[in-house]
Amino acid sequence: MAAESRDPTMLVPLTPAVFHILLALASGERHGYGIMQEVLAQTSGTLRLGPGTLYGSIKRMLADSLIAESGERPDPRLDDERRRYYQLTGFGRQVATTEAQRLAHLVGVAQRLHLLPPAAEGGTL
Amino acid sequence: MIPHEQAWLLTASRRLYWLLLYLYPASFRAAYGRAMLQLFTDCYRDARAAHGMIGVLALWLRTLGDIGVSVVKERALALARLRQKLQPVAVARPVRVRHHADSFTEGARTALQLAIAETRRYGHARVGTEHLLIGLLGEDGGVAAHVLRDLGVKLPDARYALAFVLPRGSAVLGDEPEVSPRLVTLVDHAAAEARALNHAYVGTEHLLLGLARLSQGAACAILELLGVRPEQLRMQVLRVIQTQHDSG
After folding, report:
1. How many residue contacts between A and B have a Cβ separation below 8 Å?
2. For residue range B130-144, what is the model confidence (pLDDT) as tens digits?
3. What is the 3-state secondary structure (H, E, C) of A61-91?
4. Out of A18, A109, A116, B208, which residue is the most buried by the measure of CB atoms under 10 Å away?
């Protein structure tokens, strides 16, 4: 199943929740609460993933091999409960890049149409 | 840390959230329920620390919204998966159950008889994997019934799930009832499993292993509804066989 879905363009556009989870995991493995906090930080507090949305997305991302479980252990900064950690797969990274390129292209179009100010200093996309 | 006098609120919130998790499909709850409760507790702690009681109230409002949206989504996906499992097989295969029936143990024969009785009970036209699953549950002394009980599958629940996936029919079965192609496949798998284990007989445990190898069919749909995954079923059967082997 994983072998068939190796073309990253098959999965884009991603849902906002999936793209944000990929971005949250781009800097390293995290557990559910860690992902939630990172998404909150990356969106300046506007996207707060609830448990149902988060784990529903995680389940589908595991099935698509975008992410993988990377172990279960307590987080010393929180408490001594065991937590399941997730990490990006190589394929997940490709898909995140593909989606980011798609969005960058759209930003370029928006700039040409003067919907956005042009990018600073030689920043044509 | 949460002051002592408000600990009851955390306990009550956790308990309520745990109950609400029962709205999700059983398989989803089994896989992520514990992690979701953990995440809810983390959020509770943050909300309580940042905004006190108002924070807890806001958290609950957000959480109810999250549950509403994600329950509908997970339920819809689970239903779509069930539908897919209930797709008829494309190629009908000849009835070959009786070829293996000579090597059936007493228990396996009883399970098959119970399956036929169950098919009659529902007025279904032919014996399928779903009826065998009920038969295996009904064969009390068998390894299969033991394994299914360990996995929390109860006879009334399985019957309820069967009625959920297949409507009652009005067929009258003869003495030599027709068998569904998928049940034939299941029995073939069971015979192969017995051979692989070097067992000279086909028992209820092999039938259950055969069932665990199917990815489609009403029995798979029933197990999915009851939150039992095929690999889980397989592992549990092998564990019980190993235990019995070790103890004599």
Report:
1. 56
2. 999 999 999 988 999
3. HHHCCCEEEEEEEECCCCCCCEEEEEEECHH
4. B208
